[in-house]
Every structure is written in structure tokens, then in C-alpha cells.
Design a protein that fits this description.
The protein has 9 helices and 5 strands, in the order βαβαββαααααααβ. By secondary structure, the protein is α+β, with helices and mostly antiparallel strands.
Length: about 220
């Protein structure tokens, strides 16, 4: 839904399939914080986004006062500070999220884009990823979610990366010895917040009318 907007609202530069952007959009939906969404493709980054953040990565959130947040966890914490009805954030960001965002993400990139890293076959990079999967499976054997009986930011922050990993070779993932992780992933894939977060928008260009998210 597009709309003209008299009162300034935050601007979110996003890329639909990026796991960092996915977890950001899921949190914005959960918290009910509305932004102007500017959907893009990473090979054609708008000059306005690069002016706000030279990193050239998404998501980027520009607040009404011009403050720029260009790390997904910073945007998530900002949104949850406004509204966190089910206490997703808790006391602090889980160390599991830190491992996901660094060691696991590096192995995942090597696995997903193995042709760019020909030093080793994709299967070897996948084996490195499995060390993290085993951690998640162990946790899910003890509780429904990664940090206990309730969904928290730990689940939301990690889910898009497990989704990305699984769909590199879904047939292989579906026969792995991680039944709890498979069920956890399937539940999130069907979750209304995830489904709504993946709505397709027309790619943004300068001069377009405002598109609100959530609409």
C-alpha cells in the first residue's frame, strides 16, 4: 500500500531475500513499528542509501532525526525498545546469535557460494556449518525454542540463516539427523510474521511515492 505521508517516519532500505533484512522486517512487524520501506536489489544500490551508509549493505534504517542505523541488530533493538510485548529481547543478545552472525555466516557463505571459494568442495563447507546445527538441535531437544519455552530474539535472529542454509540443498537438509531443527524451521516458515515479512514490493527508485511497512 502506497501513501503520501505528512509526518516523517523512519526509512528502511531492504532487500527481500537478505537474512539480516528478513529478521529486521519480522521484528518491525512484531513490534508494530511502521516505516517507509525502500526495497532494492544489491547490484543496483540507490545513491541515497550509500549516502547514508557507505557499507552498502542492508538493512539501513534512517530515523526521523537523521540518525542512521546500518546493523540489523541495532535496528531490532531500536524497534523492541519501542514495543516488545512478548519480551523477545530479554536481558541481552544471546551468544548464540553472535556465533550465528560470525562463524556460522562465514561457513554458510562458503557453502552457498562454493563456486567462489574453490579451495574446498561445498560438502566440506557444509560440514563446518553442521557444528552449529548440532548446537541448535541439542537446544531444541530440551525446549521448544532456542532459549526456552517462548520464542525470543534468538530464534528470530537465527531463523533466516537456517532457512538460507536449508534451501541450498533442501533434499539433503530434509534427510539430516536434525529432526527438531527441521520442525522448528518448518514452523517458522509457516509463521504469519515471516510470511508477511516476505511480501514483494516494487523495487524502489528515487521519486517513488512512499510505501509503508507494515501496510
Amino acid at each position: 500500500m502506497s501513501s503520501s505521508q505528512l509526518k516523517p517516519i523512519p526509512i528502511l532500505y531492504s532487500f527481500r531475500r537478505c537474512p539480516y533484512a528478513i529478521r529486521t522486517r519480522m521484528t518491525l512487524l512484531y513490534s508494530g513499528v511502521q516505516v517507509e520501506i525502500r526495497d532494492l536489489i544489491l547490484r543496483d544500490k540507490p545513491a541515497s542509501m550509500l549516502a547514508y551508509s557507505e557499507k552498502g549493505t542492508v538493512p539501513v534504517l534512517v530515523l526521523e532525526d537523521g540518525t542512521v542505523l546500518d546493523e540489523s541488530l541495532d535496528i531490532i533493538k531500536w524497534a523492541l525498545a519501542k514495543n516488545d510485548p512478548q519480551a523477545w529481547l530479554g536481558a541481552k543478545i544471546s551468544l548464540l546469535v553472535t556465533e550465528n552472525d560470525h562463524a556460522f555466516k562465514q561457513h554458510l557463505d562458503h557453502y552457498k557460494y562454493a563456486d567462489r571459494f574453490p579451495e574446498f568442495p561445498a560438502e566440506e563447507y557444509r560440514t563446518h556449518c553442521e557444528a552449529f546445527l548440532r548446537q541448535l538441535e541439542t537446544r531444541l531437544n530440551k525446549s521448544v525454542f532456542l532459549d526456552g519455552a517462548q520464542c525470543t530474539l534468538t530464534d528470530i535472529a537465527i531463523f533466516p540463516f537456517i532457512r538460507q542454509f536449508a534451501f541450498v540443498d533442501k533434499d539433503w537438509f530434509d534427510q539430516t539427523p536434525y529432526p527438531k531443527l527441521q520442525a522448528w524451521l518448518a514452523d517458522f516458515l509457516d509463521n504469519e510474521i515471516f510470511v508477511r515479512s516476505m511480501k514483494k514490493y516494487q523495487l524502489w527508485k528515487e521519486g517513488d511515492p512512499i510505501t509503508l511497512f507494515p501496510d
